[in-house]
Amino acid sequence: MRQVFNLDPNQPIQTSTGLPCRVEEFLGSGGQGEVYRARLGDRAVALKWFHAYYIYQDKGLQKRLNGIVEVGAPNDQFLWPIAIATQGEGFGYLMQLREPDYRSLVDWVKRRVDLKFQTLTTTALELADSFLQLHTQGLCYRDISFSNVFFHPKTGRILIADNDNVAIDGSQQGGILGTPDFMAPEIVRREALPSQDTDLYSLAVLLFYLLHVHHPLYGKRVLEISCLDLPARMQICGNAPRFIFDPTDDSNSALPRSGIDPDGEAGANAIAFWSLYPQFLKALFIQAFTIGLHDPKERVRESIWRSAMARLRDSILHCPACGAENFYDVKLLKAGGTPGNCWRCQTALRIPARIRIASMIVMLNSDTVLYPHHTDPRRTYDFSTPVALVRSNAGEITLKNVSQQRWITTIDNRIEPIDPQRSITLQTGLKINFGNTEGEVRL
User: Which of 2, 149, 277, 297 has its CA 20 to 30 A from that of 122?
Assistant: First the structure.
């Protein structure tokens, strides 16, 4: 039987741009509406067309969308409404067409794709940065979850969809409260409406899911529930939430995979990943899901998450035996600990060459790239163009200047300029003046 959609191929649509627009192809559907490929003038775009019942349910939808179009996207990672589309009594909006190489975060959570930690940390950093840009404009997203985010499996770059839910922070606009499991406890209990404070909670859940492939509140209590229905979810996520790694309360602690929990529903994945990460990251998640559960003003800010994810990315080190990515934990080492063993092959890890630049410590692996934000404090998490490349050959490690600026290096009172496209052999104590900041190498 032929499936009937709201719009037909080649159907003309009126838009607020005044340019001719025509439907081309049905792409998919969801609870709010359907998405089509369309052509606006000579440009391929996506068209989201709302179901009639959703328009009836959300009375302020069209007014809110007009405001979103007028404000404009916080950055180019939001698939932002660029124009309103109408046809008869129906309406929708046009947005940038998502590139085909991007995958849903659901694919990662369901383990349909394998990702490097470098990719995951880049995705996490970009999520924190993008929602910071959104909040800086006085807006809240209202429905942060992994179903609304797409990522590039090689670069970690993200695209954020479903921006029709965005509203002015503190306003009563919009009918959506969020996605179950991602809603802040006060929303679950119907004590508050979506806001930037509740966005911060949802962002923390999303980042935890991204890095642990598990929900931060689904521990051993899950095994006491015969059916994880709405009342059960309200209890776990709203009425009595407990972090699975709460350092002072083990009533909902994560459990390893065992005969008691063969499917790992109580946190086996989380335990495996949690053991890998540095203490500074664990401390932020503990804050987010202990005091942050109950006090919205104590939640971790987007800027803090962004800084932490950049630091985590710089902390990646490779196992000398199997090449697996592990993490450098400076706090553990200062306390007299060791780098430990590789999580994959159990070989003892060695700390690689590294460079301290201001407050940053960057592991100099054979594939490390330094970017503008590493060498210029005026640049904020800028991954646009490499400025330095690490190379390793026969035990010799070099750093190649691929910037447009001359460096000045100092070692044992010897000063040497390093022009663009030249390399310098790294050794302990080598200082590199990049022009706007200085780094010191340790091997």
Answer: 297
- Region class of 131: left (phi > 0), else alpha (psi between -120 and 50), else beta: alpha
Q: 289 and 358 in one domain?
A: no
The verdict on 74 and 199 lying in the same domain is no
Looking up residue 65, the CATH number of its domain turns out to be: 3.30.200.20
Task: State whether 124 and 202 are in the same domain.
Answer: yes
**Per-residue b or e along 239-258, where b marks 16 or more CB atoms closer than 10 Å to that residue's CB:** eebbbbbbeeeeebbbbebe
202 close to 97: Cβ distance less than 8 angstroms: no
Asked if residue 45 has pLDDT above 80, the reply is yes
Looking at the structure of the chain, the number of domains it has is 3
Short-list 383, 376, 245, CA closest to 313: 383
**Looking at residue 229, what is its pLDDT?**
85
Q: Which residues pair with 271 in a beta bridge?
A: none
* pLDDT digits 0-9 by tens, 101-153: 999 999 999 999 999 999 999 999 999 999 999 999 999 999 999 999 999 99
DSSP string of 10-27, one letter each residue: T-EEEETT-S-EEEEEEE
Q: Please indicate, yes or no, whether residues 366 and 275 belong to a single structural domain of this protein.
A: no
pTM: 0.94
pLDDT number for residue 2: 39
Reference 210, options 113, 291, 280, 278; nearest CA is: 113
